[in-house]
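Exercise 7 asks you to align residues with tokens for two separate proteins.
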Amino acid sequence: MKVKGIVAAAFICAIIALAIGFSSCDQMAPMLPDTEMAPMIEAEIPIGVVVSLTGKDAEPYGIPMQRGFEMAREEINILSGGNLTFITVDDQSSEEGAIAAVQQLVDQGVPVILGIAISDYLEDAFPIAQENGVVAFSSVSSAAGLSSIGDYVFRTGLATNIMIPSGVMITHEKLGYEKVALIYDAEDTYATSSNEEVRKALEASGVEILTEETFQTDDPDFSTQLTNIMEMEPDALFISALSVEMTKVIIQAGAMGIPDTVRLIVPDLTAKEIQDAGDAANGAIAFAGWTTLSNIPGNQTFIQNYRAKHGIEAEPWAAQSYATLYILADAIAKAQSVDSEAIRDALAQTMDFPTILGDFSFDPNGEAMYDAVVLTVKDGELQLFETAMPQMMDEMASTSQEIPIGVALALTGPFAEPYGLPMQRGLELAREEINMLSDANITFVTVDAQSTVEGGVAAVQQLVDQGVPAIVGIGVSTHLEQAFPIAQESGVVAFSPISSATGLSALGDYIFRAGLTADVLNSNGTMIAHEKLGYEKAALIYDEADTYSTSSNAAFEETLKAIGVEILTVETFETGDANFSTQLTNIMNMEPDALFISALAPEMTRIITQARDVGIPDTVRLVVPDLTPVEIQQVGDAAEGAITFGSWFDMADTPGNQAFIQHYQAKYGMQPELWAAEAYATLHILANAIATAQSVDSAAIRDALAQTMNFPTILGNFSFDPDGEAVYDPIVFIVKDGQLQVFE
């Protein structure tokens, strides 16, 4: 037996003895986290560590980081049989010191360098590692955009453009501030990045920014800026600064008489700054990547071990550094190599790795992805910020019980991109936010409906068989008509975000929909368009093989007849048809004032394009329900002047809408689609019902959903009618210069 194995076995036995109270040692050995780790390579693995051990950044950042790294190193070597060693260099709390430290470690040939808390220092030091092909992994730095340094650069701290928008959204929804002031260190990379993200998030939420005051690192007096802020009487003051200046600003704000009614919102505020600032910090709000209050597996063990080892409470920077070494060790174990390139590639593939920060992933740029938290200072302690989202069941919150939601979407086939994938994106964004807001643990069981009736039926049956209490999805009404009765018969809630054919609520009392039905949407839109345009003769074309299209057309016929418009012809086609020249030529010859098109996306775009190709003039107004920017882009000028009806638009000032758009753009790099917005709202509505029901029983969720009344969503105040159909205000649009605009 290897000596290392004997030592490890002895250590574990000692822990067991301690756990049952047989040890009388003065200093208790730490409990090992319940972590499975792949075996390390047997060779020594030298890791470079750059932290501030002297100077102004030592105590707030560098020394806690060192403590977190060292605790993780001790545990990992025992758990994995590895031999991680550190080569530590003090950056002396300066940019020059950080550059020299990284260069020294590169020259010594280490495969990885950990550390560098301050984004200013990282910005100039990590390019040295990048140029030499050495992995550089910061556990703390969080200024946006620094991943652009290169593919060897990784970070554990949530970047400001990820953490701050969610924090602003949560606090704004709860506190309702309307006028705010900003103050930041214009000389510091992190502080300027933080302030920029705060500004963008506030503007997206429609909050007025009264002033942006600046200062420079090491300034001791902020009286001029704070006097100006106080005179403007803001509802909240956002402070973006590193620890030293942050504390001074908080203290001086209190001393100058800025009242408690002005909420201080300070990203990265920690227990250290709260202790230093005293009563001046009470009521302040912080955004963070970690909290001592979390019951994430291993977190309380880490806190207990840290307290036993160092005699103090764990700091966020220690926690992030502790998690960082575990993430790195997992990558080295998977790479089975100390080659920098191999470690880089393994790190880049990190996905949902369990850490005390939560399930951790890297985005394609090497930036951290996990859930942020919002905290508030009460009686000198950081506590979880109470949000407007109702709490889930106490038992769920305390045990992290999963709430499994079935998701049935077209992820492949012709309906994937127009409907299924946007819905998936909207649902996932909502799930992340809800879990953060409510301390819930909603999980998805996702099945591909494959863009077919058969696939939809099989997907719902599979989810019912797995025992989920609710199923979300099925966008196409023809598919829903066959699939949702399975859920109804099994007593499982079935909730479609976008299906809108009239009458499908008749399937049963477990069926709900977030999309406005065709009889509501089309009737309203047809009357508004007629009042404005005054058309007298209309032609209709629709897909007679599709449930939604036939329903849409029926609503048009009924409304047009009711308002006295002559219907010249009703042309039909079937799903999958590619050529509509016969129908469109017939329509053109009749010279209507308007052409009403009822179809799903693939056929809709073909008809719009071919209508102009056969010579139907621009004077014939196209009226096309559910026309979205995607289809407009596909058909180009042929869509100009078209009228469409929808349930959501990106300029709406409904609560949370602009924050949703900003978060969607940040997460997916694109503008949100209508179907993503409806899916996002759907999960919020469902989560509210689960919270109201205080249960994951399907019947209880059904009853709570049925009672939903004026629930605020990005679609507007949302209610269900007695049949489980959505009730909120529809919108009429016109295509102008290739863009959807509200039809006036």
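Second protein for Exercise 7:
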Amino acid sequence: MKHHFRQSMAWLHTWGTLVVGWLLFFIFVFGAATMFHFEVTRWMQPERSLSVPTGQVPRETMVAHALDHLERHAAGATRWQILLPHERHRGRQERRSIPGVGWQGSGYGHSSLDPATGAVIPEPEARATHGGGAFLHLHSELYYLSEAAGIRIVAACAMLGLLGLVTGVIVHKRIFKDFFTFRRGKGRRSWLDAHNVAGVMALPFFVMIIYSGLVYFDRESLPLPVAVVYGTGEDAVKRYYGELTGRNRTLLPVQRPAASIAAMIDKAEQTLGKNEIGEISITHPAGGVLQIELRRPHGSELPRYENPETTFRFDATTGAPIEVEAYGPGIKFRWFMLTLHDGWFATAGLLWLYVISALLGCVMIATGMVLWVVKRRERHAREGSAAGFGLSLVARLNIGVFAGLPVGVAAYFWANRLLPVSLVDRADWELNCLFAVWGWLILYAALRPEKRAWVETLWLATAAFGLIPLLNALTTERHLGVTLPAGDWGLAGVDLTMFGLAAVFGVMAWRLWRRWRSVAGVPA
């Protein structure tokens, strides 16, 4: 019984993941890229300013300037927001040392202010691009599909991926022993060892990231329970999320608080620490009082939404504290999983751990798919039978996806620098270039000798990534010679990462070329 159970799990692991392996690789690649999507967007808009610290200005002065601006430009809005300088404002990297204001109501607006004078700092004219935001959509919604269809396809892949992890653990009886075993140059055994090491090394991350992804789009992943209770219309969806988040409330227009916000900040930072307040929100719920909410920057802590322990609410008229209601365990768990999935709370070191773990997921998927081909070719060789079309198709698609997709990603960055700034629908054309190059390389892999296609495509990826910093230096003034001396690691990190990726693909290409060159009859 146990033997048959493991056999059935092995079959399920093999075929369940083979069906979605290439798409899971696509999702993991862009999932890794989303960890630094703010930095990528800044790099793809070189017209924006460098991240340079400004002089210290009392926060009381900055808050007063912000309220003056909101009174003039956001009268009648139902929410005012003030962003104080804070290192964890990831979405405002080049301006996180200066205050910002935003407002919501019938419309929405935002501005950055000079800390000393309160004058509006104009936004520079920047080229049209989807920037790093494209990676978010590609990761969760795919492309050239409707949002709902893309999310459901990704959710189905995630479910099969989670099933693949569970069955993989069951199939590998010596999973922890195999983790410490890697035999080079042993053909199928080497591919299996690489698959096992990559899978076990980041196994907790894989389980967390796939499961939290399903929680992220719970309504799309499990639409029936929501449809039964709330219905299927657009209003039903709004009611569901409104009740889920507790935001089904009417907001009245806000006005300038009478109480001292500076005193509220001092009181909140007795708990949070000095200079930890990053966001101030002013709202007026119907039936309640005008109130002020203070917290650290959005997404910089677990959970990323209202937490009674780190969110402080005050009556805007009297300055008296207002109790922050605690969410129930279900919604708290959901926010916790969403925050884990996004990784917004993470510092730079932990974000890189996310990226490395996601890339290990790419390695696990790629080695598993290559192993499928190697095993069946060895079996055909033993039996003296010819390999079928399906096996050849999988082998060629492996090249087109695992080596070709990275070249397509590099083409996205090349298109950002080479397409005319005035081009109509320029942002969309950047993504069109990604898919056009990728599609061409899938075709290229189908027409070239297989081993040549692997080596040539990997060398192309090496050149494509390695030359991006040079292209950046030739076309903009935001190159390493400027960003490194300025200490702008957000921009410099993108260029340095390109060098790192080029080195990885170069090593892979060189090792494959060297190995296959020594095999008799194989063209080098």
